[in-house]
């Protein structure tokens, strides 16, 4: 299967600072990437859909000014959590969709964010 | 009624057992069906992907789709302790690049040695 990487795998930051998470498709070009959030023992919650070269589409209830998404190339999307607060602590996972109308979605390994 | 319902867990089986995991869905517009496996503190791993009714086999795994009954299943033969994980069913519409996945809640499987 295709490979998606995320960096960093774990980050601890202080309240009020910003954190950037990178998502890369390593062996395919992804015009569409997705960002999810997952709470312990819960299923994945879609935050936004990221399209290369255009603005991200955010799900209802997700603050676009707080969770900035940039999909600058066909292999890289970034999620920046701005002015992080302890309630933003979570497991963030990206996925990348392979090209075509029947594209498969492959997930990254996730980033655990802890805001102190 | 939720769009995708997945059998609640957790599920515990002895090593070597055949495992059956099931999901039902309400929206007949779903056309693509996936099973993901997620180990603790890791991202989901795509196990099976199918878009037609019938069975698809890959090693010890068989995905079954019944579109008339809106029912999908994942069978694991000769289950191993390494199969212990959370299994998520997912499905999507066949429309364009922004097609989002709709997930079941997931079921945690434990295979006892």
Classification by helices and strands of chain A: mainly beta
Number of strands of chain B: 11
As residue ranges, the low-confidence spans of chain B are: none
Strand elements of chain A, count: 11
- What portion of the residues of chain A fall into strands of 2 or more residues? over 45%
Strand content of chain B: over 45%
Low-confidence stretches of chain A: none
Helical region count of chain B? Answer: 0
What is the residue-mean pLDDT of chain B, rounded to a whole number? 92
**Whole-Å distance between the termini of chain B?**
37 Å
Radius of gyration of chain A: 13 Å
Task: Provide structural commentary.
Chain A is mostly beta strands and about 120 residues long. Helix content of chain A is about 0%, strand content about 55%. In chain A, the strands form 2 sheets. In chain A, strands 2, 4, 5, 6, 9, 10 and 11 form a 7-stranded mixed beta sheet that branches. Chain A has a 4-stranded antiparallel beta sheet with strand order 1-3-8-7, with no helix packed on it. In chain A, a hairpin with a 2-residue loop joins strand 7 and strand 8. Chain A is globular, with a radius of gyration of 13 Å. The mean pLDDT of chain A is about 95. With about 110 residues, chain B is mainly beta. Chain B is built from no helices and 11 strands. In chain B, strands 2, 4, 5, 9, 10 and 11 form a 6-stranded mixed beta sheet that branches. Chain B is globular. The termini of chain B are far apart. The model of chain B has no long low-confidence stretch (mean pLDDT about 90). The chains are: A mainly beta (about 120), B mainly beta (about 110).
Q: What attributes does this structure have?
A:
heterodimer, A: 116 residues, mainly beta, globular, B: 6-stranded mixed sheet, 0% helix, 53% strand
């Amino acid at each position: 299967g295709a490979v998606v990487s995320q960096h960093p795998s774990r980050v601890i930051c202080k309240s009020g600072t910003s954190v950037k998470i990178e998502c890369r498709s390593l062996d395919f070009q992804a015009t569409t990437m997705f960002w999810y959030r997952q709470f312990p023992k819960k299923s994945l919650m879609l935050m936004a859909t990221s399209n290369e070269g255009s603005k991200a589409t955010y799900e209802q209830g997700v603050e676009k000014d707080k969770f900035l998404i940039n999909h600058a190339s066909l292999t890289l999307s970034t999620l920046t959590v701005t002015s992080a607060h302890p309630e933003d602590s979570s497991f963030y996972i990206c996925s990348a969709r392979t090209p075509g109308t029947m594209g498969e979605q492959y997930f990254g390994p996730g980033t655990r964010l802890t805001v102190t | 009624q939720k769009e995708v319902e997945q059998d609640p867990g957790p599920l515990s089986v002895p090593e070597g057992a055949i495992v059956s995991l099931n999901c039902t869905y309400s929206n007949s517009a779903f056309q693509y069906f996936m099973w993901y496996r997620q180990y603790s503190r890791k991202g989901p791993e795509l196990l099976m992907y199918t878009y037609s009714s019938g069975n698809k086999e890959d090693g010890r795994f068989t995905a079954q789709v019944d579109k008339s009954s809106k029912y999908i299943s994942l069978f694991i033969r000769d289950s191993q302790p390494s199969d212990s994980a959370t299994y998520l069913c997912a499905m999507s519409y066949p429309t364009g690049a922004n097609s989002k996945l709709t997930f079941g809640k997931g079921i945690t499987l434990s295979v006892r040695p």
